[in-house]
Amino acid sequence: MRVVNPSSRNPWWLYPNLLSLDAPVVAVAWLHVFAKNWRLGYHPWWAYLLLGMVVWVIYVADRLLDVSMSGATADAIGARHDFHDRHRRVFQIAATVVSSVAVVMLVTLMPLAIYTHLMTGAVLLAGFFGLSMLSAQQPGELPMVKNVLAGATFAFGVAVTAHVYRNDFSLASLITSREFLCFAVLCLLNIAAIDLWRHAAASHDEHIRVGSELALVLPLAMLAAAALFCAVHDVYARPFYYAILSGTALLYALNRLRADLCRERLRALADAAMLIPVLVFIAASRG
Predict the structure, then answer these.
(1) How far apart are CA 161 and CA 23, in angstroms?
(2) Nearby residues of 98 by Cβ (< 8 Å), 6 or more positions away
(3) How many angstroms separate the CA atoms of 185 and 156, rounded?
(4) Dist CA 102 CA 54 (whole Å)
(5) Could you give the CA distance from residue 226 to residue 235 in angstroms, rounded to a whole number?
(6) Is the separation of the CB atoms in 230 and 182 below 8 Å?
(7) How far apart are CA 38 and CA 36, in angstroms?
(8) What would the pLDDT profile of 46-67 be if each residue is shown by its tens digit?
(9) How far apart, in Å, are the Cα atoms of 26 and each of 155, 166, 217?
(10) Is the model's pLDDT at 207 over the cut of 60?
(11) Which of 25, 17, 13 is nearest to 278 (CA)?
(12) Is 10 helix (H, G, I), strand (E, B) or coil?
């Protein structure tokens, strides 16, 4: 039996990440942003609950899969994976119950329009878990394709939960939406940032360090420019693009401060970098 040293107990601010509650909170918060930005006349509370439940199950499954597939110990791949590994049985039972409730809610409460998008979401999710298994077998590589799929899947799940309540709920109108595209890129960069920071810190090659820096900074600059352009030309969605701009600024600030922060603090602050823009959106919408 593992004995926990009191001095090594996890800090309170890390528990949302350890319990896989960070991503559901971000998803639900941004669902509110999409619902308000698209001015939905009707958007029930159970849509928020269902999204949070589905995201939680996916993240728990991914972390348990990471530990199972990786040749490294749970401690070597981070506190959140170690926590999931030590409480594997509890997470498995909870995920089974939550996923069962989510299926019942999906079938009985969500509008029929959701079924026109389920196949796209399923393909994205299958690709994500497939790449998760491949990247777990190659722990030394930077999982950029997996991060792209993770960002796309997360953004799609959030946006579609609001999109199905719009008058035009076609798949084409969603994936060509400037709001969706900007949010998807922000999600991708947020997810990829941790891997890029870890990869650069573990390398002694200056070219790899510079490459990792540019791989994050250049897309952040391009996303900021795109959001600024959209904010100028779309008055009604301007608060949304202000939120995107603030998210890019916060990620850039974390990139500059990363040398002074441990990996777990960086993860927690990366979550904050996705939540603070929601407050920016709310403030800008009232202005």
Answers:
(1) 15
(2) 53, 56, 57
(3) 11
(4) 7
(5) 15
(6) yes
(7) 5
(8) 999 999 999 999 999 999 988 8
(9) 11, 22, 22
(10) yes
(11) 25
(12) coil
User: The whole model's pTM is what?
Assistant: 0.91
Contact 158, 47 (CB under 8 A): no
Where do the structural domains in the chain lie, given as residue ranges?
A: 14-167, 177-287
What are the structure tokens assigned to 264, written together? 């777990």
Closest CA to 77 of 69, 5, 93, 23: 69
219-245 average pLDDT score? 97
Rounded CA-CA distance 76/118 in Å is 36
What pLDDT score was predicted for residue 262? 83
Residue recorded with tokens 């497939």:
130
Residue in this structure with the two tokens 């979550």, named with its chain if needed: 271
Contact call for residues 151 and 191 (beta carbons, < 8 A): yes
Question: Tokens at residue 228, please?
Answer: 């600024």
**pLDDT of residue 245 exceeding 60:** yes
As a whole number of Å, the CA-based R_g of the chain is: 19
Which candidate, 264, 278, 269, places its Cα nearest to that of 80? 264
Choose between 135 and 95: higher pLDDT.
95
Structure tokens at 9: 């107990």
The residue among 279, 285, 280, 278 whose CA lies nearest residue 31 is 278
106-146 pLDDT, tens digit each: 999 999 989 989 999 999 999 988 887 776 545 556 678 88
Range list of H helices, the chain: 15-18, 22-37, 45-69, 79-86, 88-109, 115-137, 144-163, 171-175, 178-202, 206-233, 238-257, 263-286
14-167 fold: Tetracycline Repressor; domain 2 (1.10.357)
